[in-house]
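Table S2 (text version). Query chain:
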Amino acid sequence: MNTAEISELKSLLSSPIRIVVIGHKNPDGDAIGSTLGLSAYLEKLGHNVRVMVPNDYPKFLKWMPGNDKILRFESHSDNCGTLLKKANLVFTLDFNALHRLGPEMEAVLQKLVCPFAMIDHHQQPDTYAKFTYSDASMGSTSEMVYHFMEKMGHLNYLDADIATNLYVGIMTDSGSFRFPATTSTTHKVVADLIDHGAENSQIHRNVYDNNSENRMQLLGTALSNLKVMQEHRAAYISLNQAELDACNYKKGDTEGFVNYALSIENIVLAAIFIESEKDGIIKISLRSKGDFSVNEMARTHFDGGGHINAAGGRSTRNMEETIKYFISILPTYQNALLNA
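Corresponding structure-token output:
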């Protein structure tokens, strides 16, 4: 975001307006943390702010400050549509293409005449936003919200609720601060959030230490399905609909499962394939180490994208054919996998 954009946005935010802050479909910790953090900051500036996401999100995020204010488009489409039409400004956070909202919500946003402001850390952003703060080197959108407040000269508005929400987003998208995009600046930001009331130990417990018995059984099933291909330095996990149903699957239950495959010695590429009969697809999460780009793999082969070391996609093939296709493309990446 250049100086001219910051100046124009400051002018737009200098008096109370109606703002909608939106996170992507299937919201994760960064989407919820960044939207709640930004909305609380904008409310402190005196604006009328509403937070929306396309659909539901995991239970382990529903304790966060301001959670009760989030509207889900899937269950409140009429109300959300009305609020969007009345908005003077729409912020889109943690995504950079409107199709990431799903077709119904995307169609509503395509018709809006108000300006958009994007804050996002994914590669290759679309050009729908008038104000664009895009930085693929950042580890999380929540860290970018902190820097956005800094650019606006408003870090003095940080409080415990904002700090808590941004901490959750940074922690979850950085793999608890272990991913390569976690920099010394990230740690300085986190230190400031703790100084402003983010209780780091309690936040970690709230997010990671509330596992249900069903989730642990599902993890056991996932690990029993683990396949390792040392010749390609790759591993994958699969979960079909019957296995999900047997463990009473709830949204968010498979969060982090793919990292178990990536943690195996000598493995630099990991995938998890999860069947969704409702959507008629296989959902795919990809993770990697080093400079092997799963973003490129997801964009090229699985109608997805993301970051160099973390990306997602989908397949309309059945589970067996999806896995066969995944295995078939590995020789194409053999040199990159061996040298990562």
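Notes on Table S2: The chain has a mean pLDDT of 96. The CA atoms of residues 66 and 299 lie 34 Å apart.
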